[in-house]
Amino acid sequence: MDESPQQARLSTKTLLTSAGITLGIAALVFGVAIAIGLTVPGIRAHVDILIITVLAVQSSGTLIMLSLFLRRRGHRMSAIGFSRPSPRLLHLLWQIPAAFLAVIGAQLLVFAVTGSGPVSGSSTDAVAGNAGPVSAIVMFAAIAIVTPLWEELFFRGVIYGYIRDRLGAVGAVTVSAAIFALCHGVPILLPYMVTLGLCLALLRTFHRNLWGPLALHVTLNSTASFVLLEAVFA
Q1: pTM score, two decimals?
Q2: Is the pLDDT score of 41 beyond 90?
Q3: Has residue 224 been placed in a domain?
Q4: Would you call 174 helix, strand, or coil by DSSP?
């Protein structure tokens, strides 16, 4: 059941450095953005461009730096999880709809129990509405494509792989899902993120590569952020 005969065991140093890269890039990019927002005159009139730039730089920078680091440590992308796709991916035709129902059902249950509801007019919607077509497309690409790529590489590649080597598949699924949910940190969305994390990790286990969870992640983010383009082109 090995994913690759060349798969190398992920060390604690690799795990911690990967986490440091991810957190460090986020802190640097958002820190610079805050500094620009506080010091550059007139930037508030173009805050939508600043936010979109931050999203694009943070997501692409994290993906590039994580990939370079893992390669330098001797971990091939095929061993991390980006191995050759197989016909087994056809199961995604039912797995993705099932995952959609699971995550939406989890969040609707929270709304029913708490009496709350979806938040409309969010800052993301406002940014999309104020941005031009090019900016909206860049934002869509960052959220729907680049972010799923680096998150799968980190959460279902590095973290899942590290835990699986030590606790097995069950431990990898549960712990990686919990870490994924906590890192997204919005209390009202925690059940949604836990359910999504479990679905992504289960796909990682079932397909024995990152293509399954990546397909779900891209599909979900694309569906959720389609409103960004709709707000501009409608």
Answers
A1: 0.90
A2: no
A3: yes
A4: helix
Mean pLDDT of 202-230: 91
Tokens 């891209």 label which residue? Answer: 218
Q: How far, in Å, are 107, 175, 178, 187 from residue 114 at the CA level?
A: 11, 26, 22, 12
Q: What is the Cα–Cα distance from 221 to 217, expressed in whole angstroms? A: 6
Give the separation between CA 85 and CA 117, rounded to whole angstroms.
39
Name the band, by pLDDT with cuts 50, 70 and 90, for residue 42.
Answer: confident
Give domain status of residue 3, yes or no: no
Q: Check pLDDT > 90 for residue 5.
A: no
pLDDT band for 188, please (50, 70, 90 cuts).
confident
SS3 3: coil
The total number of structural domains that make up the chain: 1
Domain that holds residue 160: 12-233
The answer to the question of residue 1 being in a domain is no
Contacts of 2 (CB under 8 A, 6+ apart): none
- The CB density around residue 94, as the number of other CB atoms within 10 Å, is 9
